[in-house]
Amino acid sequence: MRETCTYDVLIIGAGAAGLMCAIIAAKRGRKVLVLERADRIARKVRVAGGGKCNFTNLHVSPERFISANLKFVHSALARFPPNEICAFLKKHHVSYLEKKDGQLFCCHSALDLVHALEEECASAGVVIQTDIPIEDVHQNPSGPGFVVRAKEGHRECLSLVVASGGLSFPALGATDYGYRLAERFGLKVTPRRPGLVPLLFQPHEREIFSGLSGVSFVGEVRCGDVSFSESILFTHKGLSGPAILQISSYWRDGQTVVIDFLPGIDFRAVMRKNGSRRVEMKTFLGGYLPGRLAQVLSFHGFVNKPLCQYSEKEINAIVQRLKAFTFVPAGTEGYRKAEVTLGGVDTAELSSRTMESVKVPGLYFVGEVVDVTGQLGGFNLHWAWASGHAAGLKV
Ligand SMILES: Cc1cc2nc3c(=O)[nH]c(=O)nc-3n(C[C@H](O)[C@H](O)[C@H](O)COP(=O)(O)OP(=O)(O)OC[C@H]3O[C@@H](n4cnc5c(N)ncnc54)[C@H](O)[C@@H]3O)c2cc1C
User: Fold this and answer.
1) N or C: which end of the chain has fewer CB within 10 A?
2) Ligand 1 center to 16 CA (angstroms)
């Protein structure tokens, strides 16, 4: 028999943001229900960071995020610094370590963090129901709050929190539900595109570099006035690796990406010093770059010959090729391979302190569904915790 249950807070989506919101709200004495369409909670947390979950970053600050309005993130981040989630892990005896640049990972497995979230939800009295496809959500015609309709019955709630995530990795259950719901309630949603995603070569570059799939090097990649110096990986379709994933979030269709294959090295000075040697360029470059990459660059970028035979003009061309290699990506590998979705519910529609809709009181949006995207390195999960926490204090 269909029945109606009433909750103070109903949360759509049992990911990082939804679960954090549920825990904080339930600890404040709210009766909380989380509805999840997948068969298990926190699927992205389970696979994040290669199964070790890069759950936060010690250097969290607004500059590490992308949004049409970066001021929006200040309040939530200030009230949920990284030590909050660290304290949560410590409380549940989950050990973690800093890998590099402030990135914190679970020592053992991301599942430890998922279990901690489950335990905390259970002890706070949060009800979680999985495998629940929602059929309809509307404002309660006979009182305050909302009615959420699913096959199993209606649920009524005073506060509705949308924590349904972004579009990336549909294989993990990503849907556009949150964006559609926002639009149905009259909220603006900014255009979405994949972020932290591999870039694709144009056909002619693919031909040149296809043999390098699997080769990586540390390079600097730049798009406009943003740059990242980290590992770059050749794939059979284009480029990936942390530096490329980072820049992909700033890249727009048609823009040029510039790569410095030898960051921190003044190659003109190196050539001046070694210009009288008989060693061939491909061998010489092999001292700076992986052998296969040195070979491809030497044969396709310029004529490979002994260093002593290059003219000044040729050296200029080589330096240009190695220090400022330009390409216009044909596109990205799309949501299938993107770690995040850029864009989302317009921050102008939400209170930065509580994540509550300005137009529709009682309706909240948290996590990736909002137009806030972090850089690579634990910032996206941090936003999920911080925005979930902010809403949890108000719902
Ligand atoms: C492969 C991969 C690795 C990543 N690694 C990291 C990392 O190491 N560090 C980091 O900071 N970030 C990482 N990210 C990004 C990070 O996982 C997300 O930004 C973060 O999980 C977003 O949290 P969320 O709660 O907003 O959304 P999600 O975690 O996506 O949760 C949303 C939930 O809502 C559910 N849902 C969707 N639609 C409905 C519906 N209609 N009804 C009910 N439920 C619904 C989904 O099934 C899902 O469980 C990674 C992402 C991917 C894809």
Assistant:
1) N
2) 7
- Give distance in angstroms: CA of 381 to centre of ligand 1: 8
Residue 357 vs residues 350, 351, 363, 390, 392: alpha-carbon distances, Å: 4, 6, 6, 13, 14
Residues 67 and 216 in one domain: no
What's the CA-to-centroid distance between 166 and ligand 1, angstroms? Answer: 7
Q: How far is the CA of 19 from the centre of ligand 1 (A)?
A: 11
Q: Residue 368 carries which DSSP code?
A: G
Range of the domain at 353: 3-193+341-392
CA atoms of 8 and 256, how far apart (whole Å): 50
Question: One digit per residue, pLDDT tens: the chain, 395 residues?
Answer: 455 679 999 999 999 999 999 999 999 999 999 999 999 999 999 999 999 999 999 999 999 999 999 999 999 999 999 999 999 999 999 999 999 999 999 999 999 999 999 999 999 999 999 999 898 999 999 889 999 998 888 999 999 999 999 999 998 989 999 999 999 999 999 999 999 999 999 999 999 998 999 999 999 999 999 999 999 999 999 999 999 999 999 999 999 999 999 999 999 999 999 999 999 999 999 999 999 999 998 878 778 899 999 999 999 999 999 999 999 999 999 999 999 999 999 999 999 999 999 999 999 999 999 999 999 999 999 999 999 999 999 99
Are the beta carbons of 55 and 106 closer than 8 angstroms?
yes
Domain boundary among 332, 352, 367: 332
* Domain count across the chain: 2
Same domain, 33 and 75: yes
Most ligand 1 atoms within 8 A of CB, residue of 47, 380, 382 to mutate: 380
Of the residues 332, 356, 377, the one at which a domain ends: 332
